[in-house]
Amino acid sequence: MKLLGNKRLLILLLGFICFIALMGLTLGKRERMSWPEKFVTDTISWTQGIIYKPAGYIAGFFEDIRQVRTIFEENKVLKQTLTKYARDTTKLNDLEQTNKRLQEALNFTERQKQAGNYTFRIAEVVAVNPDLLNNTVSINLGEQDGVKPNMAVMSVDGLVGRVKKVSSFYSTVQTLKGIDDTANESKAISVTVKNKENESFGVIVSYDPGEQLLVMTMIDPNDKLEVGDTVITSGLGQVFPKGIEIGKVVSRKQGNFGISHEALIQPFASFDHLREVFVVIVPEQG
């Protein structure tokens, strides 16, 4: 009975302590807390920490997954936008380059109309022969357009070459890189110098692939040809009509046998990146 009485007393005491603590928590704010209040508050806070920390980690984990998915979707949209922008930029640049080339071609044809010497038919380069020794390109003009073999072909910059073969709707053009006076299928170019009082004369016979320059021979040692002179077709050869610009003299030296001089000519036209060219139709051939 005594032990049971002590238990009751202990339970009553604990209950009184809890009552005091709860009363302290329900009261208004005070500057200092009693030790039962502190004990209960610390116990509750510690219990909440145990419960809320794992719950916070779990919630944060799922929040991170949601954010990662959101970032992934945003990056996907961004990549699509950047790809479209790059594609549109490339297309715009290509259109600008095409517009520039066509504007230059229009200005070129207008100048030629004022000169009134030849007819220039614009053509698009549709293929380039991969054989570097052949040096030919294909254009989308042929017999149906009045194109014939050996007609001169030029760009807005200068002479490109000559028509080598012709089909109904397409033609093969041999560029000046393939010129060789020793080959039966090639023609040397008889040339003079533009706007010079004492007319110079020579013949372009080959192309030096190492120097990427045309070789001009048969120059009279007394000829006044100088570095910087502009070389044009003389019209005295079998193929190329008169007055088409070819290039600029970059050097001159004595020939192999000392009888004549030879010069190296920097072509005005580019043979590697042709897009549009002109077939020169001489009135007598038209």
UniProtKB/TrEMBL annotation:
Keyword annotations: Cell shape, Coiled coil
Record's keyword annotation contains Coiled coil: yes
Protein name as annotated: Cell shape-determining protein MreC
Signal sequence coordinates: none
Function: Involved in formation and maintenance of cell shape.
Family (UniProt): Belongs to the MreC family.
Coiled-coil region list: 85-112
Gene: mreC
InterPro entries linked to this entry: Cell/Rod_1, Cell/Rod_MreC_2, MreC, MreC_beta-barrel_core
Keyword Mitochondrion: no
Domain of life: Bacteria
Record NCBIfam families: mreC (TIGR00219)
Domain Rod shape-determining protein MreC beta-barrel core: 125-280
